[in-house]
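Running low. Any example?
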Amino acid sequence: ERERERESEEGQVTDTFWLAMSRLYDSTAPVVISQGLLNKCLQEQAVKDDSGIVAEGADRPEKELVVQLRLDYKNILRIENLWEFQSLTKLQLDNNIIEKIQGLETLVHLEWLDLSFNNIEIIEGLDTLTKLKDLSLARNRIQTLQGLDKLNDLHVLSVGHNQIKDTSQMKYLRQFRGLETLNVTGNPCADDECCLFVVAHLPWLVYLNYRRVTEQSRTKANEQFQEVIEALEQKDHDDARQAEEERDKRDQEDLHRRAYVNGVSGEEFVRALFAEDGEAGVINNMTQVQSILDVFCEVFMENCAQVIEIGLRELKKRDEERRQFSLCVEEAIEVNRQQGIAKVNKLVEFKKQVLELDGDDLETKIVVLESDVLMLKEELLDLEIQLAEQLEEVTKEFEMSYTELVSGFIEGVQAHFSQCREAESKFTEELTEICLDILGKLAKNELDGEFPEEARMMFVDKESLMAALQTAHDNHALCIDTKEDGILNRAKGDLKAYIEELSNTEMKRNRGRIAEIRHFVESIRDEITQTAPSPDLEM
């Protein structure tokens, strides 16, 4: 509504006026967003008196607390120095001479951004502004709709009066299913046909070019672009399904990684197993080998599936163990904290009563108060010692239980990898027997059926054949050992790292708590010292 009123007014302004404004801007030196400019703008946004003038001595708000900032009509050429505005949700940069969108990366809480009436040619620099709901880029020099992909929460977009010539670019906006208000008026492509195109391709749109989209417009647009829309909807459906499948795949890969069983998928593992067979690889394609190869793959993949099942099952147990441990630690710390608060509140109340006294009563009570402060310090430190001992005991129990879980996982993995080795050894033995039989028949010219030429080179002599089979077997064993070692080393390494992390976290907490107690006690003693009667004054 703000932009509509402004464009309505400015649409009536004569070319002479705009020429005059252009000359005014040309005569004014371009500026960047300096600290001086920011301080001036913040001062203008400070508390004003009844006349609307900034009150003398009004406090300038801290930059990190500012939620709205106006930098319009400042002849700004370059955006910079906004990194301190960590809480900013609304930013006005309209009516400047900005040529490039930049310097906004840190404004991650921004919801409303006005960059209209500038000289911007490319939409860029907005990827981190994922909370942006309202964006105005009207009255610029933009030719292409792009650079908005990360703005999934976009509700209002104005790109009116730019240089967008191709109506088909509006299809880019189909990804913004929450977009309700769009302005494209004033572009070379913005004719009646373009409006119907937009309505057909963005059926969720409520307002287009400052007008509510009517049912008549929707019906006409759908009739005109029915075939195109059906094709697009099918593509959207296919893309969504593919994206979901890819997301599920990533989630599963992440889950398998946490369970230490990534890369153990049966088919994937088997491919890796035979990938380095070299010349011997052609033997596996012979019809005489298929039956034993199928049996081996079935047994091997079944054991891989068992390893994955063990990994996922044990991961759930480890996650639950961690959760229970965290709850236990949090409960112990909270109980200890409440006990400390009760003791502190008791002293604070007594201190308040003492400091309200005067004369001899004050002097006597201060002595008592100082003694109580020292006693409080000892009590708080005793509480911290008790907590540290309690957490140490709980942590030891957790470490034992967690280590047992990891050990159980390792034993299960080792058992199934042992069966994988046995299956591979059996396969190699049977393969060797078949190959020797084929070698003998070839020598006697008794082999039935056709024999592949690529395999014939492997059966020139027994020594070469046996060397190739042994090399393949060694590669298989190395592949299995490497995969098993990787799983076990990661499990053991993560266990060690997690236990060290627990120790470091507790040490940091303990030191922080002791420093906190000492600082609190010292602050109380300083307050007492400042309140106590001075002996020199009494004399």
Remarks:
- The first helix runs from residue 2 to 10.
